[in-house]
Amino acid sequence: LKKVFGTRNDREVKRIQVVVAQINLLEDSISQLSDDQLLARTGEFKVKLKEGSSLDDILPEAFAVVREVGVRTLKMRHFDVQLVGGIVLHEGKIAEMKTGEGKTLAATLPVYLNSLTGKGSHVVTVNDYLAKRDSQWMGTIYEFLGLTVGRIYHDMPEEERKAAYNCDVTYGTNNEFGFDYLRDNMKFSFEQFVQRELNFAIVDEVDSILIDEARTPLIISGPAEESTLKYHEACKIIPKLRKEKDFQVDEKAKTAALNDDGVETVENILGIENLYDPQNIETLHCIQQALKAHALFKNEVDYVVNNGEVVIIDEFTGRMMPGRRYSDGLHQALEAKENV
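^ thats the sequence. predicted structure below, dont judge the formating
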């Protein structure tokens, strides 16, 4: 049956090739337009949308315009495979493209098209370097066509962050978009929100961001109430415990737990009868987090000590993540371990 009818993917590509042919037919006429006439097309597209046309109606012409601007500004022409990728992304589907097929350039097509609504488009990258590079590199195309381009990054002033979100195209990492969404939902009025109503987003390296990194939840934690002194005391106990004899470590599950011998050793060191007594619950928590900090977390691997602070290292990109903290007292335990 597959030989007769083809796979679903083959049928989808065949359907899209019809649109690609329409875009290619417009190439000659679009290439004869002046720079000002190309810029004017953005306004014309916006008027058509207000008059009731859909994004799909103006797609061929819009894509042809972006292709021509790419040639003029970056000396890069969108090939048919990139047009196919752009249409797939516009339809909200996943486009798999091989290295070197030009994912970055392909994304400019649906981003431009969806930004014409005036509701903004987000381009989600895996790290700050790519967000900065692409916003400057591909931003040339958008700005040529009269769109505004913004970028969000860590430690950005609130007003600048809001202005970046109000741009037609906004670049940033998945963590920045995620945390801004969480922070907005903790605010007291809509006027304080930095993000607008969410409209359209393209996610680069979607398998990494939505599968691999999705295992790490985005958590906003408040200031710890426990005294850091207790963690310092707990960290003095851990070196006296022996692996396997007093505690077990599961590297894969990232857990470390005291066994019966370990509990007895800790009780003897602290001079208490029962570590699991309700009145010792806070001490037990500090011991458990200190054990985790010593047994599972390695300096220069999971975190670094920078300017007297413990800074988490992103396990996927290897980059430092200033401002991020582990929850449940683990960060204080790491600070106590490193004496900072």
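The radius of gyration is 27 Å.
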